[in-house]
Amino acid sequence: MTILCVRFQLPPMYEAALPGLLGLLEEFTPVVEALPPDGALADLRGAERYFGRDAVELASVIRVRALARYGFDCAIGAGPGPMLARVALREARPGVTRAVPPDAVAEFLAGKPVTALPGVGAATARTLDEYGLDTLGRVAAAPLSTLQRLIGARAGRELREKASGVDRGRVVPNAVSRSLVTERTFSLDELDPGRHRKALLSAAEEIGARLRAVEKVCRTLTLTVRYADRSATTRGRALKEPTAHSADLTRTAYGMYEALGLQRARVRALALRAEDLTSADQAAHQLTFDPVDEKVRRLEQTADRARAKFGPRAAFPGALAA
Q1: Distance (Å) of CA 35 to CA 70, 76, 134, 171, 174
Q2: Concatenated DSSP letters of 217-253
Q3: pTM of the entire structure?
Q4: Fewer beta carbons below 10 Å: N end or C end of the chain?
């Protein structure tokens, strides 16, 4: 077990703490891959030899230091490779590291649903389930030709390898997330366009605050509307300029929503994804000389400072109610 997948128990909008937590991992190994907003992969092969301790023992030290220095606990999965560490993380909880022994990989995976593998979505799972291939053990035992006929040659081969415990992944140091997503789910299927817009406003404010917290801007915004019948509609729109300004994101989200022309649609959830992220200091901002816009940006900065000090509800108490 040489790979750790760590998920820090960060409250929403506290992504600004992630760089420091990544620095904590880098005290043990330089091979750390960030998984924003709250996670990371760490390759501890060199650390195990250097410290004379295995990955599970080092995970305990990491947890104690994260609590002592930052006040955040973490859940940790450990395995022979990145994929297996990610799967193990699903069963981990704060205070206990879930480890996959190298000699028990097949047994660990056998009874799990195919969606336990990273990258396997609901559509693929439904296709396999129709043919009785509802667990990783059954997928691993299935003929390769059957899997390739069902989901394609390359996808079938890769799925069978992963289900058999073959983990060809590696930890890529300093990898940067290219997207950031937030979702608003309604307690009951919602027909009211006013509540749809309120949810979009809340989501856009959160996306903007999270982007600013990690000093990023986005070039593209994508809206996904999920309906009561489990179908979904997705629309994307390029922004006029890279931004993390909540007002710009809100206008774009509203524009995409209005363009859908929904008529009494029973909406279950709305999701916004900020894509093509780049560093804020490398993006140009078009000056508008609009006093209202400048005032909004100053209020936004004040709200960000309040949120960082007192938590996400301090700046927008009603923003998370949608």
Answers
A1: 18, 13, 28, 11, 10
A2: EEEEEEEEEEETTS-EEEEEEEEEEEE--HHHHHHHH
A3: 0.60
A4: C
Query: What's the CA gap between 37 and 232, in Å, rounded?
Result: 25
- pLDDT digit string, tens, across residues 34-69: 887 788 999 998 899 888 999 999 999 999 999 998
- DSSP character string of 83-145: HHHHHHHTT-BTTBEEE--GGGHHHHHHTSBGGGSTT--HHHHHHHHTTT--BHHHHHHS-HH
What's the sign of the alpha-carbon dihedral 171, 175, 177, 178? negative
Could you check whether the bond before residue 37 is cis, i.e. omega within 30 degrees of 0?
Answer: yes
Six-digit token pair at 228? 């009561």
One-letter amino acid for residue 214 of the chain:
V
CA torsion sign for 185, 207, 89, 227 is positive
Specify the DSSP class assigned to residue 280: G
Which whole-number Å values give the CA distances from 267 to 86, 233, 261, in the listed order?
31, 11, 13
pLDDT band at 318 (very low <50, low <70, confident <90, very high): very low
Residue with the two structure tokens 């309604």? 186
In sequence order, the β-bridge partners of residue 172 are: none
Residue with tokens 């995409």: 256
d(CA 242, CA 301): 18
Residue 29 — φ and ψ, nearest 5°?
-155, 145
Whats the size of the chain, residue-wise?
Answer: 322
Check residue 87 and give left, alpha or beta (phi > 0: left; psi -120 to 50: alpha). Answer: alpha
- Percent helix, strand, coil in the chain, to 5, is 45, 25, 30
Other CB atoms within 10 Å distance of the CB of residue 192: 11
At residue 148, what are phi and psi to the nearest 5 degrees? Answer: -65, -35
Contact 207, 123 (CB under 8 A): no
- The token pair at 118 is 């990273």
